[in-house]
Amino acid sequence: MVGSASLDPRARRGTRVRSSQQTRFRGPAWEKVVTRIDGSGGPDTLSPMPQGKETPFESSATRIPGGPGWSMDHLTLLPVIDDLTEFRRVHADDPALSVLEELWSGRPERAEPAALALVRSARTARHRALLADVRRDLGRVSQAVEEYRDLLREHEGTGREAALWQHLGKAYFVGGAYGEAADAFETALRLRLDSRADPDLVTSSRQALDRARSLTARGSEGTAS
C-alpha cells in the first residue's frame, strides 16, 4: 500500500466527503494507492495545487473505493482512513501500520520518522515508496518524484511498474503538475489493462486520469482567456 491537496494536503482534507457506498480492493493496500514526503532546504520546484472555490461537481464528489477501513478522496486522489478500528484490525501485522495511519490521517510530519526507520531496516521498494509519499505530503514533491523515477527504472517490466506509475502520477498531481500526472496515470492504466489487472485497479487509474485531465483542461481554458 503506499500504499494512495496543496503542498500541505492537510489543508485540503477538509473538502472531503464520506460516501455510504464503498467496495473493497483485494490484495495489499500499497498496490491500490499512491502516497507522499521530505527533502532538505529550499522550496519545492513544483507548485502547490491551487485552492479556491469548488465547482458544483467537486462539492458533490464522493470517495473512491479503497479497502477495509479506507478510501480515496476524489478531489485529491489521496487515501483517507474512514474506520480506524477496521483499518488497524486488517493491518495489525503490517510493520508499516504506524506510517500508514499517520500519513493517511493527514499527519505526514509524524509519519516521517517511522518511514525513515522502515527504509533503514529494509530498503524495499514498498518502504522507499512510502517514504516518498510522506515527503510528498510534506511538500517535498520533487524529492518524491525523483524517488519514484528511481524505483521505476529499477522495476521496469515487473509487476510493480503500474503501481509505481500510479504513485508517480499522484506526486505530480499533488505538486500541481496535472499534465505530467495525466501522462503517468495513462501509463499506469495502459499497463493495468495489458496485464488484465483487478478491475478495481483499472477503475482507480481511469478516475485519476479523468481528474488530472479535467484540471489540465481547466488550466488551459484559464490561460486562453
Brief overview, please?
The chain is 54% helix and 4% strand. It has a single domain, classed as Serine Threonine Protein Phosphatase 5, Tetratricopeptide repeat (Alpha Horseshoe), CATH 1.25.40.10.
**Count of distinct structural domains:** 1
**CATH superfamily caption:** Tetratricopeptide repeat domain
Please estimate the helix content. 40-55%
What class do helices, strands and sheet pairing give?
mainly alpha
Number of strands: 3
By CATH reckoning, the class would read Mainly Alpha
Q: Span from first to last CA?
A: 41 Å
- Name given to the CATH architecture: Alpha Horseshoe
Low-confidence stretches: 4-61
Task: Return the string of H and E elements.
Answer: HHEEEHHHHHHHH
Rounded average pLDDT = 78
CATH topology: Serine Threonine Protein Phosphatase 5, Tetratricopeptide repeat
C-alpha geometry: globular
Give the spatial strand order of the biggest sheet: 1-2-3
So how many helices? 10
